[in-house]
Amino acid sequence: MYMFKYVLKRLGLMLLCFAVIMVICFVLIKMLPIVVTGSFGVDKNIQYRKLEARGYITNLQWDENKINIVGFDKVPILKQLGLYLKRIFLEGDFGIGTTMPQYEGQPVWDTFVSRLPPTVLINIYSTIIGVPIGLGLGILAALKKNTWIDHVISTGVIVLISVPSIVYALLILYVLCFKLQLFPLRMDAGTDYLSWSMFKSMMPATLSLCLGSIAGYARFTRAELTEVLTSEFMLLARTKGLTRGQATVRHALRNSMVPIFPSILSEFIAVLSGSLIIEQMFSIPGVGRLYLDAINAQDYDFFMLLSGFYCLVGLAAGIIVDISYGFIDPRIRMGAR
Question: How far, in Å, CA of 279 to CA of 206, rounded?
Answer without folding.
Answer: 10
